[in-house]
């Protein structure tokens, strides 16, 4: 989810043999430093995008997202394609994330879902259809009216990361 100019991780599920990543539940990252952050930035209000572009966009001393125009172009492509792909080096392993938006009943992007894998083990294109389908399914489930009651809402996030068995 987006909070200000940062992406906040609200849930994480990892395989038992998953490589270590720098994200933890409750952790924050600059919006441009993760695939879900890029999705959230791409669909954020124009003023949020401009505030972000005016701020320092460095993640590490030697990692910048490029010029403001390059980032604007990338955000436009994410809005057009409805997903983001982002790769970065984490503890000696290149990791690639694929992310898609989750929307509320007004079609406003309120969160993003992503899959992160070691870059050498998979192609991002293999994950895009599943991530986009899951984001749509979550959006649909959150916004389906129940008989005699209000819209369902997402369950509260769990404390800490869970491991898949």
Description:
With 165 residues, this protein is of the alpha+beta class. The protein is built from four helices and eight strands, in the order ββββαααβββαβ. A three-stranded antiparallel β-sheet has the order 1-2-4, covered by helices on one side. Helix 1 (35-42) crosses helix 3 (68-81). It starts with a strand and ends with a strand. Residues 147-165 have low confidence and may be disordered.
Briefly, what is this?
With 165 residues, this protein is of the alpha+beta class.
Radius of gyration from the alpha-carbon trace, in angstroms: 16 Å
Helical percent range?
25-40%
- Poorly predicted runs of 5 or more residues: 147-165
The N- and C-terminal alpha carbons lie at a distance of 26 Å
Biggest sheet strand line-up: 1-2-4
Question: Class by helix and strand content?
Answer: alpha+beta
SSE topology string: EEEEHHHEEEHE
Work out the number of β strands. Answer: 8
* Dominant shape: globular
Which helices and strands appear, and what pairs or packs with what?
Elements: E1 2-3, E2 6-8, E3 13-15, E4 28-30, H1 35-42, H2 46-54, H3 68-81, E5 84-90, E6 93-103, E7 109-118, H4 124-143, E8 162-164
Helix pairs in contact: 1-3
């Amino acid at each position: 989810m987006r909070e200000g100019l940062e992406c906040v991780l609200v849930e994480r599920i990892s395989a038992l043999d998953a490589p270590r990543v720098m994200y933890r539940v409750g952790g924050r990252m600059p919006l441009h430093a993760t695939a879900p952050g890029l999705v959230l930035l791409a669909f954020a209000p124009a003023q949020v995008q401009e505030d972000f572009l005016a701020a320092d966009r460095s993640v590490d001393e030697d990692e910048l997202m490029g010029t403001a125009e390059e980032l604007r172009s990338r955000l436009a492509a994410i809005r057009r394609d409805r997903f983001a792909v982002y790769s970065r080096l984490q503890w000696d392993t290149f990791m690639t994330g694929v992310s898609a938006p989750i929307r509320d009943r007004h079609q406003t992007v309120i969160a993003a879902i992503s899959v992160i894998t070691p870059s050498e083990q998979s192609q991002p294109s293999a994950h895009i259809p599943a991530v986009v389908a899951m984001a749509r399914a979550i959006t649909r489930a959150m916004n389906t009216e129940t008989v005699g009651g209000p819209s369902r809402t997402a369950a509260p996030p769990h404390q800490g990361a869970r491991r898949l068995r």
